[in-house]
Amino acid sequence: MKNHIRLSLYIFLTPVLLWLLLLIVIPHIELLIMSLKGTDDLGDPVWTLANYRHFFTEQIYWYTFVRTAVYAMLTTVLTFVVTFPVAFYITKVVSVRLSGFLTIVLLMPFWVSELVRVYGWMILLRESGVINHLLISSGLMNTPIEMLYNDISMMMGLVYTSMLFMAVPLISSLEGMDDSIIEAAHDLGASPPTIFCKIIIPYAAPGITSGSIVVFMLALGNYLTPTLMGGKNSLWFTEQIYNEFIASFNWNQGAAFGFLLLALSSIIIWAGLKLTRQELGRALS
Amino acid sequence: MNTPVLQIQNLRKTFADFTAVDTLNFQVEEGSFFSILGPSGCGKTTLLRMIAGFLEPSSGTLLIRGKDMTTTPPNRRPVNLVFQNLALFPMMNVHENIAFGLRRQGLAGREIGQKVEAMLERVHLSGFGKKNISQLSGGQKQRVAIARSLVLEPSLLLLDEPLGALDLKLREQMKIELKKLQEEVGTTFMYITHDQSEALVMSDQVAVMNKGTFEQIDTPRNLYSNPATSFVAGFVGETNILPVQVASRRPLQVATSFGLQLHATAGIDLNDSDSLALYIRPESIILEPSDSMKHINRFLLTVQNILFDGSNTKLLATIAESDHEFTVALPQNQQFAHIAKGDHIQAGVHPESCRCFVR
Amino acid sequence: MIRTLPPHKGYTLAFRIYIVLFYLFLFAPLIITCILAFNDSNFPSLPWKGFTLDWFMADGPDRIGLFHDRSNLSSIVVSAQTAFWVSILSVTVGTMGAFLFEQEEFPAKRGLYFLALTPLVIPGVILGISILLTANSLGIYFEDTFGLDIPLLRPSFWLVVLGQFSFITTFVLLVVSARLRKFDPSLEEAALNLGATRFEVIRCITLPFLRPALIGSGAVAFLMSFENFNTTLFLVGSETTLPINLYLQVRDGSTPIINAVSFLLIVSTSILAVINLVAGKRENRE
């Protein structure tokens, strides 16, 4: 019996260790190492902090970095604000029969590739797009305006692509909430705002945290939406990484940027978990 | 003489700082229906899991048909277990559930089919083979679980409170069915329960377990009429308990705090103790005893309440001048139908029905 | 406030309007994309010039429909192959991981579990570049030391598979673990008691129990892989996957053929999603 248990442990452990070591741990160590390397004047590889120094001295880099972080947080907050009423409506307000249907319909668009969704917004919003056409043909406007390629369209795109990852944890945590808790609060004389702040939000806190973590991470690491829906000035840090890797072919600089982005997302997620007193394992499952 | 099916020698199981099973010694004879009766937490499930092989004993040995099986893994023991929650495989139908163990033994398909059919017939489930587990009623599930184990012809069939989840009526019916089944197949059954009625009705032998040890191993009748310890007297059957002092030792006479003197029988060794507990069963109290009865303890009861429960109707009464409450079984004939709340009534009890244990 | 409490008119109405607007917001881009796939115009925009199937069927010289567009068709095939391997690999390793973390005890289990969850919170771009860097360094090492040229270590089909596998496995692990946690251990004990070996228990009892989770997570793994962009972007070689191929087309201007591809994607993923949901519902009812 004991021997069998040991055997099964190794059979399960080996592939998991291989996966985590070869594809997660070693690559990230390599990322760190590469970010600390560069070439000296003669073209020989040396250890250096130049890649990081470069980041801090070039204003455009850290400006983009901070901008990305702030916008990603803003995306997270906006996604919550937009999604929460829907999650609440589906789980608590609408009749049970309709609620299942609304949930299925809510999830449907997110099975479709992000690229398709962004493309849909592009043909809606751009100067020759559908919305402009409708506005002009209905006589509300005379000349088309460019609604795409600015920070607002980019933010909208980010919120749109992130909503699912907020909605699912919110719905599942609100579903677990017994209606009678709200009824009891109502019965004891609490006003709706009080019920919302004192009962519903604390109850949904785990769902809010896990949704926020995933949305933040996805927004921070998003590349498609900022490049396709943002304007010339809507810089996003992943674009810098891409430029270093693919356009400038400066992999050491790109590795440094990558490591900084990883550090940023880890710190903010860690802080978020600490502030709401949750664990990563629970927040994800 | 035959070797017993199961022999347990100095078996102990301790967890961190808690002794679940404390140095047990007993054996179970071939073909008997052996029950272990005890309150929850008495260690009976731990004992069962050691016999099945899911737990390793801390010390002691466990022999099945004379072979040492103390460290044999569960899948190589000739012992099968009917789980408390039955643990039927929901992903298989009835036939596949019963065939599962036979498949593992590598039997030929046709032989498996025959054995499963025969077993289904035995538990009155012929034609149920293709049904899904979720389509069965509680009692049918029960029988599938038992069939699944019995088909392997184990030396010993362990049953872990399998009737617990059933409703009262079905439980009564299954008790009788289980006893009949055991007599038919002749397999040794070892039945774990906290329900004394299940143990008394079905068993040849009952072991009463408390705090990891056996208080008494006996036939149901002896357990009831001659309990060896105060625990057994209190746990098996209903009883009235009165604190008493020894008045004289030979013959034993005891006195209650309110001055009633009674002739009594000593349970086990009383250790010269003066403070005793007197146990009187509700049905041993005779209402309005005739004057011809000699050597009987007599006292006056005041009826406080009548607890009507059909064949099980009882009186709640205070004894003598005290406010000490007694339950008294009411005989089935209509002889005492006139009794009402507040009535005074003569009562008596034989000294043999007054058992004393150390308090 | 909720369905069981007496309704408040203004509140209910405002809520309803919001929900309608939300669903409009949700579906507008998809619906318009689908509609314009059938517009008889050279640009994916209004006005509506009539219904056509050109963007699916046309075979040159003015218009080339999707079914004759070699680059898009081959990228669909590449994506499907990638997704196939990724789902096979990630379901296998993810399930083993679920067994490992739910049923085995070993030192540093918590730490390893934490590590196994991290791929979900590492931005996909970072996973892409770090695997690219490592593969490249390994490739250089093998070439310099042994003179071996290992194509796997350059951006290629298999590197994309590995890159996607690295984080999709975590997803499978979470789904399968959740199901495994609902498993009644007495079923396993019952099987052992009936004479099954530990591996027979897994084959006959545990895996059938896990089947819905395996199928569900496999389907989702397939979709996640099929539409992955961020990680793939850095690892892709000459065989471009569909999202990358579409991205290049969208970036450099657009023709309604993108709408045609999108239409097919929307329809087929919706069907898959519905099948998955129906299967999940039936499983729940059992």
List the helices and strands and how they pair.
The complex is a heterotrimer of chains A (285), B (359) and C (286).
Chain A: H1 2-35, E1 37-39, E2 45-47, H2 50-57, H3 59-93, H4 96-107, H5 114-125, H6 130-137, H7 151-175, H8 179-187, H9 192-220, H10 224-229, H11 237-247, H12 251-275, H13 280-284
Helix pairs in contact in A: 1-12, 2-12, 3-4, 3-7, 3-9, 7-9, 8-9, 9-12, 11-12
Chain B: E1 6-15, E2 18-28, E3 33-37, H1 44-52, E4 59-64, E5 67-68, E6 79-82, H2 94-104, H3 109-122, H4 138-150, E7 156-160, H5 168-185, E8 188-193, H6 196-202, E9 205-210, E10 213-218, H7 220-225, H8 230-235, E11 240-248, E12 253-256, E13 261-263, E14 265-266, E15 275-280, E16 286-287, E17 297-307, E18 314-319, E19 325-329, E20 344-349, E21 355-358
Parallel strand pairs in B: 3-8, 3-9, 6-7, 7-8, 14-21
Antiparallel strand pairs in B: 1-2, 1-4, 4-5, 9-10, 11-12, 11-15, 12-13, 15-21, 16-20, 17-18, 17-20, 18-19
Helix pairs in contact in B: 2-3, 2-4, 3-4
Chain C: H1 9-36, H2 54-57, H3 70-103, H4 109-117, H5 124-146, H6 157-181, H7 185-193, H8 198-226, H9 230-235, H10 242-251, H11 256-285
Q: What is the number of helical segments of chain B per DSSP (H or I, 4+ residues)?
A: 8
CATH-defined fold name of the domain at 73-235 in chain C: MetI-like fold
Approximately how much helix is present in the residues of chain C? over 70%
- Helical fraction of chain B equals 10-25%
Shape of chain C: globular
Quaternary structure: heterotrimer
Strand order of the largest sheet of chain B: 6-7-8-3-9-10
Evaluate the radius of gyration of chain C.
24 Å
Structural class of chain B: alpha+beta
Q: Report the biggest beta sheet of chain B as strand number plus sense, adding barrel if it closes.
A: 6 strands, mixed
CATH architecture of the largest domain in chain B: 3-Layer(aba) Sandwich
Decide which structural class fits the backbone of chain C: mainly alpha
How many alpha or pi helices of chain C? 11
**What share of the residues of chain B does DSSP label as strand, in percent?**
25-35%
Return the string of H and E elements of chain B: EEEHEEEHHHEHEHEEHHEEEEEEEEEEE
